[in-house]
Amino acid sequence: MKEKVRFPSVVGPELAGVIDLPEGKVRGWGLFVHGFTLGKDSPAASRVSKQLAREGIGMLRFDNLGIGDSDGDWGDGSFTVKVQDTVRAAAFMAERGTPVDLLVGHSWGGAAALASAGEMPGLRALATIAAPVDPSHVERQYDSVLDRVLSDGAHEWFVGGRTLVLKRAFVEDVRKAHLRDRIGELNVPLLVAHSPTDSTVDISNAAEIFQEARHPRSFISLEGADHLLTARGQAQRAAHIISAWADQYLGEARR
Fold first, then answer.
1. Measuring CA to CA, which of 17, 83, 224, 238 is 20 to 30 A from 103?
2. Is residue 143 part of a domain?
């Protein structure tokens, strides 16, 4: 079962989301943050969230600005906007009486989750999947148009079967994002999940995130998984691991 929702971005346009409702006894509520140009219906977002819901953790997954069913222009977003909209999504969950206990971020969404966790009162646990330690890691995805963006102020960029407009302000915002200090200041338990054969975001990123974080912190190797978790059963496996790891922290929320 799922519930479609909408709430405003910090820059105005409405964002579209889906809450995968928990089955059986409710263990807690969570929020999933999708990757760079992916969306709430990408394999990682949808499959991980649905599996967590089957295990009693209701999950909100939403499309960022100009992605999927959300309004607005993707080019008007940035890493800062993604972080702020993640915080806004958590506030939306609190407003509906289901405050976020568990925050899960995949790929660039993992970086945004690390950056936003400190602004979510009551958060119990944070898990990242295939996250980069430096948000500017995404620059390699649009390096072919980077010079034109910086010289002209904006340029079209074809990615994932669609054309997006990449703007200079977006690039500059990403370059100014510093994540390591925020990781070191985290005050929630952290699980870092990463595949040793990830060819998009190297597993060395997981090692750096783990080293920067305080205890309690955990690492799990997602052997055999690709970056997007498209291989059969891999997203569900990641969800099982996150669910089991988070259980003791969700238990604190139930008491």
1. 224
2. no
What's 132's domain CATH number?
3.40.50.1820
- Number of domains within the chain: 1
Q: Is residue 210 part of a domain?
A: yes
Q: 199-244: per-residue pLDDT in tens?
A: 999 999 999 999 999 999 999 999 999 999 999 999 999 999 999 9
Q: Give CA–CA dist 206/200, Å, rounded.
A: 13
Specify the pTM. 0.94
Task: Give the single-character DSSP code of 37.
Answer: T
User: 228 in helix, strand or coil?
Assistant: coil
252: confidence class by pLDDT, cuts 50, 70, 90: low
| 188's tokens | 């929630």
Helix (H, G, I), strand (E, B), or coil: what is residue 204? helix
Asked if residue 60 lies in contact with residue 88, where contact means CB atoms within 8 angstroms, the answer is no
Give the domain extent around 203. Answer: 2-138+178-249
As beta bridge partners, residue 4 has 18
Which alpha helices (H) appear in the chain, and where do they start and end? Answer: 43-54, 79-95, 108-116, 146-152, 168-176, 180-184, 204-212, 234-254
Q: Per the domain annotation, does 221 fall within a domain? A: yes
Of the given ranges (60-74, 97-111, 133-147, 233-247), which has the lowest mean pLDDT? Answer: 133-147
